Amino acid sequence: MSSVDVPKTFGALLIGALFASVLSGAVGVQGIIYRKLYPADPRNLKLLVFLIWFLDTFHTVLIWGSLWHFFIDFYGSPEKIDQIPWTLALSIILTAILTFSVHCFFAHRIYKLSKKNVFLTIPILFLAVLRLVSAAGTTAEMLILESFTDFRTRVRWLFTLGLALSSVVDVLITGSLFHLLRSSRTEGGQLNSVIDSLILYTFETGSITSAATIISMICWIAAPTNLVFMGLHFVISKLYANSLLVTLNTRKNLRSRNRSMSGSSGQNPALILEARRGFGTQNVVSPVDSAFQVKTTELQINVERSVQYTTDYLYDERRA
């Protein structure tokens, strides 16, 4: 009984569950905001939001089921902290499924912004699938072994691999979006401030999820005998869910800024994204919601150029 470090085991699980519950509430609020602000969104996007909310809610249920196991079923028996309840084991794979869904969402966004560049998208999806497989293996081993000590002894590498892969995918997604958004900027363009905001959102959401995963992995490697890593792992899925919903809900603010720019300049600010780097026909990708084309004539050169806009972040001009 004296060998059990209660603050770093029971305490870590309790604090992790509390933070996870708070973030789960934020996911619910973000879901309500999304439903009110974007009733005209495509059905598949609405289904994705519902899936994220459902997985997050179920994950929270599993977390508190794990706490019930430790604090109620085995109350007064701290040595039972080494047991792995099935609810905790299932929370691992549920976190992976939710993370995989978010990774696929951003991979699809990268695919559209990069003009269907499979060489940029496939590595991200491949590593995301490997992360999901690793988490499935981790859950299976936990259900079989039912002991943290046995799990650390036999397949410690498996859980480490899953966390490492998740961090790598986050870095790839953040770096790819940064590059694609950065390349959409034009010298003196009025839409550049909107693109800069998108770059900032990308770094904020990507860095938070990646940092949480890396810190959990460091705790797992440096101190595997306590459960600080698991308390942090409870929070990871909530951060991914919030990152996706925040990304979707910020479109309203970007729409307002885009309309404000259009009204103040007397022209559509999206036209500012037209390339000024040479002559002839060029394709310019901008961060907006669906695709449309604009044709314009440059008087000095008398060349008609077609400019394509991939509307991944803002809105479809035809609905405005």
TrEMBL record:
Top-level taxon of origin: Eukaryota
Protein name: DUF6534 domain-containing protein
UniProt-listed PANTHER family: CHROMOSOME 1, WHOLE GENOME SHOTGUN SEQUENCE, DUF6534 DOMAIN-CONTAINING PROTEIN
UniProt keywords, alphabetically: Membrane, Transmembrane, Transmembrane helix
Keyword Membrane: yes
Pfam families, sorted: DUF6534
Domain DUF6534 intervals: 166-252
InterPro entries per record: DUF6534
Residues that span the membrane, as ranges: 12-35, 47-72, 84-106, 118-137, 157-178, 198-223, 229-249
Transmembrane found in the keyword field: yes
